[in-house]
Amino acid sequence: MRQNHTLNLREIVVMAFISAVFGVLYLVWIFLGQLVTGILGPVGGGLMAGFWIMAPIVCALIIQKPGVALFAELIAAGTEIMVGSVNAGSVLILGFTQGLGAELVFAMFRYRSFKLPVLMLAGMAGTAASFLTEFALYGYSQFAAGVVWFMLGTMLLSGLLLAGWGSHYLTWALEKTGVLHNFAIGRSNRQTKQERGAS
Amino acid sequence: MLEQYQQKDRFLQKVNPSLKLGAVLVIIIMMIPVFNPWTPLLLFGCTVIMIIALGGVSFRFLGLLLLPFLLFAFSFVWIQVVFPDERGNTILFTIGSLPVSLENVSTGVSLGMRALVFGSWSLLFVLTTEPSRFMLSLIQQCKLPPRFGYGMMAAYRFLPLFRDELRQIRTAHRIRGLGEKRGIGQLKRYFIPLMAGAIRKAERTAVAMESKGFDGSRNRTFYHRIHWNRYDAYFAGLLLLLLTTIWFVSSPWSA
Hints:
Chain B: The chain crosses the membrane at residues 18-35, 41-57, 64-83, 108-127, 233-250. Chain B: InterPro entries: ABC/ECF_trnsptr_transmembrane, Cobalt_transport_CbiQ. Chain B: It is found in: Membrane. The structure holds 2 protein chains of 2 kinds. In chain A, 78% of the residues lie in helices and 0% in strands. By secondary structure, chain A is mostly helical. In chain A, helix 1 runs antiparallel to helix 2 (42-48), helix 1 (9-40) runs antiparallel to helix 3 (54-63) and helix 1 crosses helix 4. Chain B is mainly α. Chain B has 2 domains: 3-136 and 229-250, no CATH class; 146-211, no CATH class. Chain B has helices at 3-6, 11-14, 17-31, 38-55, 59-82, 102-128, 131-140, 146-175, 187-211, 230-250; strands spanning 91-95, 98-101. Chain B has a two-stranded antiparallel sheet with strand order 1-2. In chain B, strand 1 (91-95) and strand 2 form a beta hairpin. Chain B starts with a helix and ends in a 5-residue tail after the last helix.
């Protein structure tokens, strides 16, 4: 299957729409996250972290081209800022590093494999990147090492489950509705079905 | 709710959005090596005064927005007291068998205030910047490819429609007797139709953009042009002044 590797306008607009919806959901999630973090501390917040990596993984799985994960997360961050996030600055920095983390994993597989384990790895890379960013931004070096490691653990778990498995589940449910037939995910799905039918 | 502040004719509203966003990022990076409570406290105070005086935002509204941040900031204090990297020597009092030391409280307050500083600067940006001006400035000053800029703007304009659609989906579910249960388990029932609708709308929007001759090329003309103006120079000067003052005032504590 040969395909063009640059994004066309249709893909960009679809990516923007998906990420914008996620951007709004992120805002709701931030509010929840701050409540949970306030009560349980950063460890509890860690469990929520995976949700923020969903936009890049969903978009990357649908479009399957280089740069999609990074741009999707930046668009989601941009939407959060336009709608009025009370955390605009850190959201932008985090959006960049989270997107980059997920993007690197897809790049490692040369944008050819978008199976569940790859998505889970991308989710974990995304939360790991957001952990490193928060470590620097919010001064986690001042906390006991045990707590920080535990936090990293919960964030990785959250990346694996929420970002990896969650995005996989939702995107394939979305594929069944047929709206994604014109995109890479729909094309590859049809191709495997045809191959199975032929053999 | 935010528009009434974003469209005011005050100083901060006239500053170039890209410059303001740059200032937010500079502040965040400058705060990373600071671990004393006074520097962020001072900076937070100055920022609040700036938002009220130069942005025309009411004190009550600002306080309301910062309220959830206080809880978030407080989490840094208690977790620093309970799980510090190294426990301080100056014991203030003990809770049960847990000694609370001055050093830990001060670091906790510093980290909490840092979160508040980030929040206040983000509010400074969000409350004084119109979304479309922000996007145009990103395209015109920061050389964001117009394909992305206008794509984002289109998606942003569709957001209110999604809210209506969500209501519609909920009503449709009710007509079919699915009930109105809410919770994590019900998320998919709303998420899938909403996303499917969003993707269909996005495809139609893209076709419409292309048919109107929007090819996303860079050399295009703009109806609204965002220029650099003297307010940008004043703002940059103010920022420098603020940073140097804070640097000098707080240096005795930052040892």
